[in-house]
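Lay summary. Proteins are chains of building blocks that fold into shapes, and those shapes determine what they do. In this project we predict the shape from the chain. Here is one chain we studied, written as its sequence of building blocks.
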Amino acid sequence: MTKINQDFPLVELHRHLDGSVRLETILDIGLKHNLPLPATTLEGLRPYVQITEIKPSILDFFKKFEWLTAVMLDYDCCRRIAYENVEDAKNEGLDYIELRFSPWFMAERYALNPAGVVEAVVEGVRQGTRDFGIPVSLIGIISRTYGPDTCMRELDALLTCRDAIISLDLAGDEVHYPAEWFIPHFKKARNAGWHSNPHAGEEDGPDSIWHAIRDLGAERIGHAVSAVRDPELMDYLAEHAIGVESNLTSNVQTSSVPDYASHPLKRFLENGIRACINTDDPGISAVTIAHEYDYAAVEAGLSDEQIFQSQKNALDCAFLNKEEKEALVRAKQTAKN
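And here is the predicted shape, written in a compact code that computers can read:
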């Protein structure tokens, strides 16, 4: 029996659109465009795209992006991937999702115009929303590993569709590219009316999270697994209602935590932190949101009440206004009756 409360909206806040490419789509585009695929069947292709090892390093995880970006050949492919993300969210039973993407990362392999990628993603999501009836919001990523100058160009590309994006994320190598380098980027994003929800504390320590809060104005933090090493930070996250976007299976697969039982999500919830459950890069992790609730959360030691609290936290932390959140709740009640 599923741990998801069917009477309450199911919301996901941390899913990478560019890390959620269907295996079938990789095979289809690869065969149509004569790409040098490592296999020509879904099962043959699977180990090259999805995690099959129990606990690879984070570098092993990142290598899996090779065949996801390989099929981002042109703007039509990017549009298709965005559209299919919305359909997949609907098919997983989600009532609302915030999808994030890095246009520079998607554009880089085939030297596409990042602004063109942004436009394609926005179009694909809008079409998917119309066709599948699920509300979707977009979060723009600047990939810190490219450095501040390129990230400013990536931000400018995102701003070409300013009204279609709600928040700015900072992803990538947080150890060697600290948050303070990107203060101007987040100031520019806030001036555009966007929220702030950077990655922090996934590979680096609690200081990375503090900098995300103090330097970048973070309203939510992606991962934040190292927060448990700093009791003052744990209290600060709870007292200031800063959301934590937890990613159980992803954190195990990247060795950010040794296993599910070691994941800090349970401690976050016990500490009153608004933490929620997400899939991160389901195209690589080979998971759905139901898997994270029904298996990963249980393995992480969450009680049924804590799992439901995570579900409520996701809606509470969503970048929606009060009326939009209430409408999602009413829609579930109407569907039930």
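What the prediction tells us: The beta strands are 11-16, 96-101, 136-143, 165-171, 195-196, 199-200, 220-223, 243-246, 275-277.
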